[in-house]
Prior knowledge:
Blueprint: E1 12-16, H1 25-28, E2 49-51, H2 64-77, E3 81-86, H3 102-114, E4 117-121, E5 145-148, E6 161-164, H4 166-172, H5 189-204, H6 207-222, E7 231-236, E8 241-245, H7 251-260, E9 271-274, H8 282-298
Parallel strand pairs: 1-2, 1-3, 3-4, 4-5
Antiparallel strand pairs: 5-6, 7-8, 8-9
Amino acid sequence: YWRAVGRPEKHRLATIRGGYHGDTFGAMGVCDPVTGMHERFRHVLPQHLFAARPLARPGEALHPDDVAGMAQLLGAHHQEVAAVVLEPVVQGAGGMWFYAPEYLNHVKALCDRYDVLLVFDEIATGFGRTGPLFACEHADVEPDILCLGKALTGGYMSLAATLTTSRVAHGISQDGGVLMHGPTFMANPLACAVAKRSIDLLFENDWPSHVSAIESQLASGLAPYAALPNVRDVRVFGAIGVVQTRDPVDVAAMQRVFVEAGVWIRPFNDLIYLMPPYVISPNDLERVTKAVGLGLDAIG
């Protein structure tokens, strides 16, 4: 976009620590460089800019330092920053951290002030996972670019989508060119048909009520584990539940416990997280949350 509108100096990205955006080179460049999964690629990835992630959780007031990091970063580097890239409210595989939605309002104001685009990665949170259709709605903030996937097709077919404002869409073509970037199977009819039906099914059902019920049951089912000595934190937001242990878990050993209990949960590092389907029954969800307890018992 910036190259097309005559601002090629704006070529770097800014983000916050603890993020995860995928495993291709561009996405890896904005994953956390220390706690992420891409240490082996550190010397070949583009070097972008990182601010501290906000510490305030949903429902808490922002701390003064929560906004200061991004404000200082953009104040010093806005002339070369093309966009701020964020997972709104919920950081996924970089740590499963939930932060105060108000942070998005502050970042949006900074982007407007410094003429920087705002990109929201809603691959994991889009289509109702946190309650509203998109997580950015918690702050009533509209990004310049929105990335969607995963629940777009319900996992039945591989498909992602990138949405932009008119400003970005028209700007990309301002120099007479078009966006010549996409995979071989981009917009293939079968995947698009699956996505359409998946979205239809979502809206044909009372998904907000399902997500709310899942949130309540996750909160009650996981809360007792917060008192265990090997647990650092328990947090729930929308249809996402997380138990964070004090030390990294033995993933293979814990998964054996889960399989024996008849559930499939994939922990990683110090995180046992649940993102159940919206159609899960209360009995099945209870079985899943109880299995988490069995896994925690197994690691002592």
